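Recap quiz, item 2
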Amino acid sequence: MAKPAAIVGQIILYSAFAAFIGYFATAPTYKQIPDDVALIKLSMSHLGGRECRKRTAEELAKLPPNMRAPLECPRGRSDIKLVLELDGKPMFETVMHPTGLSKDGVSTVYKRFEVKAGDYQISVKMNDNLVNPGFNYVKEAQVTLKPAQVLVIDFNPDKGGLFFQ
Amino acid sequence: MAKWLTGASVTEPPDVILLSSLRGNAQTLFERIENFFDAFFGGTDNPLRHLGALGLYFLWILVATGLYLYTVLDTGIEGVYNSIGYLSREQWYLGGILRSLHRYASDAFVLVMMLHLVREWAYGRYYGFRLYSWVTGVPLIWLAYVSGIGGYWIVWDRMAQFSAIATTELLDWLPFFNGATARNFLAPDTINDRFFTVLVFIHLIVPLLLLLGLWAHVNRISRVDFLPSRRVMLATLISFLALALIRPALSEAPANLALVATDLPLDWFILFIHPLADITSPAAVWTLVFGATILLFALPFLPHPKAQPIAVVDAANCNGCSRCHADCPYEAITMTIHPDKPGHKIAVVDPDLCASCGICAGACPSSTPFRSQEKLVTGIDMPQQPVDVMRQQLEAQLAKLGGATKLVVFGCDQGVDVRGLAAADTAAISLICTGMLPPSFIEYALRSGVDGIVVTGCREGGCDFRLGMEWTQERLAHQREPHLRNLVPQDRLRLVYASRSEGEQLAAMVKEFKTQLATRLVTSNRPPAYSRRKIHHG
């Protein structure tokens, strides 16, 4: 091929390479959720409860002095039951299992739900010790979700249990 | 169909033939595109023929620009965004351009890496002696993506937020991560300065591992193409600079975990995995990712054409000259002390590394047909096509040649099938690789009454055994031993670069050369006639 034609061809091919790189480095635009949608993230990591028994005075006396803990607790933790309701309708329900070979680790959940932006009555109930009936943690609130807003539902005993953020 | 069955004979099992057929189609496609590019770039400057070297060059651009970005980066939670943003806004002429180069070189790196992978598969370069290079290449894809995705997080803008959340949600699907990783990005107060320190550390360590992996990847081949030609380097750099000026890499708005990062100008080369997870599921993505990885590792162990016999050294005829050692493209030959000749060395072939290309036989000074022995035994030879058989083939075909203008075509099994060119006045001999041709065979044919010689092999940069055509060209141009002797006139010799699919072009060139010889456009005299004296050894 004649040199000028080859040079023109090279310019065209390198320009096509640059255009390909330049275009797909930033386009097409990705829209993760529609414009009028908000996100509810239900995420918590919590150690389930366990049933401890108080040792009797005789039992304590039999133990070496350095091991006389007043309570005898099993290593394993309870499953945690969690219910999320939106406007009174069940949205998500799960039983979280403790991690670890001995089931002594935290129970974790992470779920995200896309909902239309607007007003909602949100209710979260949790029972972290299934030996007991019902729910020992409940959080209910009326919330207004704006488009693209992320509402986090989390649990922190230091913040009073279940909370919205 | 037969044209596509690269390397597989009809006696192979059906699954081998199917795999070869699939590969053959891909190879034909690559060859056609490469040939098209050759018309503009030539073989040496054709980027498609140097994808590995091009990838390494892009990696060096990434390292150089990354070092600058590292020096100005403030790893505080707000500082990280501001310090990078400052480069694009206030220091666009240096830091901004370097940042853009970093971005575009990383995209180009991913692109050429994937093209390199598919091309090597298409050409069947993944099993046998190439198994090591293939297997060591697979983890590099993971490292490249880990590094690329992590690099996007450092800016801590909306894109980083999107990628960080999407990645951790993907990781959380794996049992090991236990569903708690994405909690690190729940709310604005869950991120702290230490996160970016760790992130920068990872973004330095992973590319270092990538470089280490690349060293292992090319460890078993000699004369590694570490960099493409200067023209290719300059042209791609200019392309990146043009992109940096026309479409500079900029940060999105600062990350805000209270809002979903949407409408993102996504980098589809690196971050495509996130939309893929969105439209499918983490389970589907991990199945795809792990499945592809396992398939790539398993590919060399799936049915494929049988390995060819490796080179064999004949101790009595090896004089320890080391030319085979110097010419082997895969470092399969080492030199050691000769067991029978004090003070001499002998070549030793490593069976695991030998590509069975025969380039060593072409390099051996003993591979000359002028030797008088009835059975020509050379220092290093290929059992499937010994030099002695080559001489017998040549002599038998020369004896049958007729016509006014006689021609010999030496070709290569990996390129155009030259046997189709055989005619009453044309002898055609196909070798394992053109690099297997000792130049003395050319002289021998001319002195036996042939008017012209055509030597053909793969296009520049396209040699199936990497260096076969390069060494042949140098040997014929008296630049490499064993060289073609000066008494052979160069105008009676044609060296033709042609890929597998260019049979018609080669035939046309052969015809044209024959016409030149017949019409006496070739003015030189043939070298003096020679008739081999034959000695029978008991």
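Strands of chain A lie at 37-46, 53-54, 71-72, 80-86, 89-96, 107-116, 118-127, 137-145, 150-156, 161-164.
Chain A has a mean pLDDT of 93.
End of item.
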